[in-house]
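Section 5.1 Outputs to date
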Amino acid sequence: MTRREQLLAVTTVLVSIVGFLLLLELVMNLLPVASGLQSLPVSMEDPILRYRPNRPYVFSHGAMLDNVNYGKVNNAGWVNDQDYVKSGLPLIAIVGDSFIEAQMVPYEQAVQGRLSKALANKFRVYSFANSGAPLSQYLTLARYAVDEYQAKAVVINVVGNDFDESHVAYKLGPGFWLYVTDANGQLRLQLFPHNPGLLWTLARKSALARYIFINLKFDYIRSIAVFRDYFAFLRPVAAQTIDRPMTATDADERRVKISYEAIDAFFRDLPRLVKLPPERVLFTLDGFRYPEAVATGSYWDLMRKAFRAKAQTLGYEAIDLDPLFFERYRRNGERFEFENDAHWNGTGHAIAAAAVRDWLRRSGLDSTN
């Protein structure tokens, strides 16, 4: 084969590959590929992770594009159908991770959507949530809701991976506030800045790239430490992935120790950062959801019990959602999550919203401003 023939063969292969990729891109643009939320830079000057405002988003799960949902990022950069204003009716802030961000649930079915409708003449109900956020991030989200929007009450939803992933040893979280251990062995909050890399900024304009990185969650390269700095442009993908709602059952000694320390640090920092009395802060605690799923002595079991006991000791109410889940399941056999995604479905959100309504009535907040 002559050199010219070799060059022609290579060119033919390259053109074929490019043509195939362009065809895939065209097809993906016709399908409900996840759009992502397009996180904004996070720094000490702008320390809260939010998303590019005033834009629609598409959610779909996995390779088969399941659980398609269409939603909105509002004027303030949060997943919520309402635009946020800083005055008006008293505000209840709902804080959490992907459960509360709820990309996979229509707004009217989510906790905040249900409560906003039910309390329309008494309260504003706004959500402040980041997919993947742990306890340490909840502190800064709750502080932001109180400082920026004068929230009168805060509801914080707690799930299985919120404890260990509050510590930098268990989470790489660009844009998040995480606990690090200082020279004295104490946990201290530290911001891990986030600046979307140029390559990812360009890639998220491609439906094919979004399918690979968001739907297929093709981010394993980031976990290889030797390449971590070289592939720094891939780190923003971490802020786009859906965190797992439950966590591993393994209660190894180091993990449990760090998690207990994170709980202690969270409640140490809560009154300092979130200027609300304990009676204005509620925790809703996700659970095993089904009686047959209860794993006594598992990591999740230990963390739920420790968190609730600490909250109650300090005068905070922590509602264990499991009795409510169990009763609903015994009554009619309903499921509380999607078939292929353990996040709450509309029924799961309805259970949590009802628990918050009950707390508002019992606390007297529902009848006062």
